[in-house]
Amino acid sequence: MKNILVVDDSKFFCALIEKKITESLDYQVMSVGTYASAEALLDVLDIEQIDACLVDFRLPDAPEGEIVQLLAKKRIPTIVLISDITAEIRNYIWKFRIVDYVIKSDNYVTEYIIETLQRLQINPSIKIALADDSKTSLRIMSTLLSVHKYQTLQFNDPLVLIEHLKQHRDIKLVITDYDMPAMNGYDLTKNIRRLYSKQELAIIGMSARDDVLMSANFLKYGADDFIIKQSFLAEEFYLRVAVNTSRVIEYEKLTTAATKDYLTGLNNRRHFYELVEVMHSSAYRHSTPVACALVDIDHFKQVNDTYGHQVGDAVLTKIAQILQSSVRKSDVVARFGGEEFCMYMVGINRENSQIFFDKLLKRIEGTVIDVDGLEISVTVSIGVNINHHHVLDSMIEIADKCLYDAKETGRNKVVITPEEPGKA
Length: 424
Ligand SMILES: Nc1nc2c(ncn2[C@@H]2O[C@H](COP(=O)(O)OP(=O)(O)OP(=O)(O)O)[C@@H](O)[C@H]2O)c(=O)[nH]1
What we know:
The structure is a single chain. By secondary structure, the chain is α/β, with parallel strands linked by helices. It folds into 3 domains: 120 residues, Response regulator (Rossmann fold); 133 residues, Response regulator (Rossmann fold), CATH 3.40.50.2300; 148 residues, 2-Layer Sandwich (Alpha-Beta Plaits), CATH 3.30.70.270. Helices cover 47% and strands 21% of the residues. The strands form 4 sheets. Strands 2-1-3-4-5 form a 5-stranded parallel beta sheet, sandwiched between helices. Strands 7-6-8-9-10 form a 5-stranded parallel beta sheet, with helices on both faces. The longest helix has 26 residues. The radius of gyration is 28 Å and the shape is flat. It starts with a strand and ends in an 8-residue tail after the last strand. 32% of the residues are buried. The mean pLDDT is 94. It binds guanosine-5'-triphosphate. The site of guanosine-5'-triphosphate has 16 residues, from strand 11, helix 12 and helix 13. Guanosine-5'-triphosphate (GTP) binds next to strand 11, helix 12 and helix 13.
């Protein structure tokens, strides 16, 4: 477990924030009240184990913010607590590349700290692309974002960025300058919007131009936000990045909840139908061979009854992984419910279906599933329909009959639909 170091001489505040952090985050909290004790602790601790630091700007033995400098030297992400912010103090603390500062008297303070710490946990999985022809701008933005632990990719050519976005769908935010030789920010925004909706990827436009229309135009072409380079403030930049990436992540979570099985991460039954209906009608029209298989774990009730539901869940998750990793990207695997899975594969003939499902059966039988030291093996029965029927539900119904035969005739076996007369 990662650690948060709190340096504050108020015992009340330390107790309050420790309670809030341990309630809502997977962090262990260490608290000290002085600069000297923080320094002594940092000398003996493994810095890698400290995920973030929360420090009071004014400590009894270091009243001028010396603690901020100490933590910056150790490169620990730091949130500064302060009760009397002035322009001078603000400039001083930002020099040390802090994560953020928080005004202590504010009622909202603990909530804001928790949100910021939560973001520091999530941000390493968020990829942000930066488009700017100025290497200095790219470096400044990338450094700022790395303090908040975001992953960044830098592009000085917008055309290269567009190609990258076509190949990789994991970028959550693009921050783009306006003036670039190969393509301006408006055109880049328009091009990105042809590839991604606002829910899938956010865009922030940026410009140093003194043009009042720039912000409105960026937004009209599909950007979500705009930052003026001249009045650039780190705290504003971070908030805009956080708001825009959070929106995309929240949408992604909603989509995942609607389409994926919560336990195994496979497609759920509803999404299987959404994906496969289209594939199947095309395969049927073009007489492309398909295999529709139902896979059911044998005597799964016994696993639950003997070892408990948690072990049962681990077994389901492992089998799901095996099924998903056995097929091509173009095939669809879903959990249909309970211990039953459905697989739909395009372009596989009778001979290859037999080879594929026999191999899958053996792979599952030979897998030892380790659940906290407990070693379990299971077998599956598989019913496969490779005969064409234009209705998808009928394809599945026929596979289900084969599965029933596999169960009835001994389990741990594959039953494939017999050849249809006249269709050899
Ligand atoms: N752990 C766990 N168990 C589940 C889940 N969904 C369904 N089950 C259990 O799966 C078991 C299915 O049992 P049965 O339908 O009798 O089938 P079986 O024991 O596999 O027997 P055969 O299919 O005939 O080989 C039941 O005990 C369900 O409670 C789940 O999400 N997690």
